[in-house]
DNA sequence: TAGAATCGCCAC
DNA sequence: AAACGTGGCGATTCTA
């Protein structure tokens, strides 16, 4: 297929091209770059197409005259890209938005993202692929040749390369039309808009990065290494009695990281270990067997060294001195983000680690998180008056719940009763069963069952909602969040295990997913407040937002962050008070 | 021997 | 071990 396009490479052509395109409602949008990271290479091409007219803007001649962000000749392009209208349709728009932000200094406005749309339509089906080639094939029946994608975009460009670049932008127009039909049919228009609006904040966050203090991290690691070496030594001694080939030359070394070897050694010294050596299994044995306690202690340090060791320092970008993780906007079917390279959503909560992520000199972090947001969502969905009342009191939620469940005064709640209530409060969101609840609390199965009955008798509507969710899924085979996000459940109706799984997902997905909806809305509201300032979004962790700002504006930013998060929740949580805890800090600590 | 599978554990 | 949900990731062990 012949592709018609205009190559735009001087000031006059930029002005004319942007004028021609500016009245369209939608523009296909794509970029070609010499590397994958904006910190490594150059933005070479920017392609825009209204489906008939396609313009390929070559950045190279402009770059020769300095910064693209300040180049007057590119002002019309910057304006067109930044505007909310025309809307810019891109596949994985975060990628293009990052490059444009880094090179042209602007946030792309009015994003439509066909990759996110594809993920929403797939509704959690992990068999579906979401590359542009896959999506084009699935929705348009058009097979795209992507061989030019990894070609050299730095030098003289071939006709083939330019046509490839133009073609992807053209494709977006038909793709959006087709996918919008499907989004409409599936009731996904609102959630799609929510996702599209979230792209610019996420692109900005990745570009901003999070400052990690290398020296602090290394100092912290030194301590861990010493502890680990000591524990390793002691544990080897304790287990050596259980190693068959312990020799005359002292104890035999066993691999403490090998579950099989450790389980063997433990059995040989008389510890009744089952197949698994996981912590939850070993914990009850720790009191009786010192070697088990030692092993658990060792594991803690070993985990720290492997998962949170020096390797994370390799992710510090030399150009910025900061960590720029990859955030996947629809990382889970529930709509939650996932994070990788490195995953800074799983940094241990302890102060030693968290304090290494800090504000650079003269700056502050503002750390805000939703308090018990998932339980509040459950309260909203179920409309349970008692559960809602526990939030309205504003007091310690778990203690209040314990008072309700045990029918006693709040001041009479024992620590143990509070723990029971807390465990149940968290567990029910995941569809916990009595046996699991029993094992985690040490209660007998019978007592656990009775306590759960008592809990659900206290919160009858909550019980009804959960039962409703697990009934409904059998017929509908989907779950939805408050934004309309959909997750399809696949199960064989003759398979009890699969049915059980689906029923637990059905309880959890609407709650976890609505929490994700709220966070995404908050990101957009916040972005609109701060994008023109020096305040930077630096990390998010499911119900928490971390922002970096100038010391002098921190109190004001704290207010903006809190109000953005509250406003975001208002749309979906109307009958239950929502609480956001905000803290201004030098470090990522709460 | 490289990649897959498994186990285990960090976050929310 | 799991009838407690969502991820990413590292070390060991299995497998083609």
Q: Tell me, rounded to a whole number, the average pLDDT.
A: 94
Helix content: 40-55%
Give the amount of beta strand, in percent: 5-15%
Strand order of the largest sheet: 1-4-3-2-5-6
Radius of gyration: 28 Å
Tally of strands:
17
The CATH superfamily label of the largest domain reads Ribonuclease H-like superfamily/Ribonuclease H
CATH topology term of the largest domain:
Nucleotidyltransferase, domain 5
Calculate the terminal CA-CA distance, rounded to whole Å: 58 Å
Structural class category: alpha+beta
- Tell me what the CATH architecture of the largest domain is: 2-Layer Sandwich
Characteristics:
590 residues, alpha+beta, Nucleotidyltransferase, domain 5, Taq DNA Polymerase, Chain T, domain 4, Alpha-Beta Plaits, 4 domains, 6-stranded mixed β-sheet, 4-stranded antiparallel β-sheet, 13% strand, globular, DNA-binding
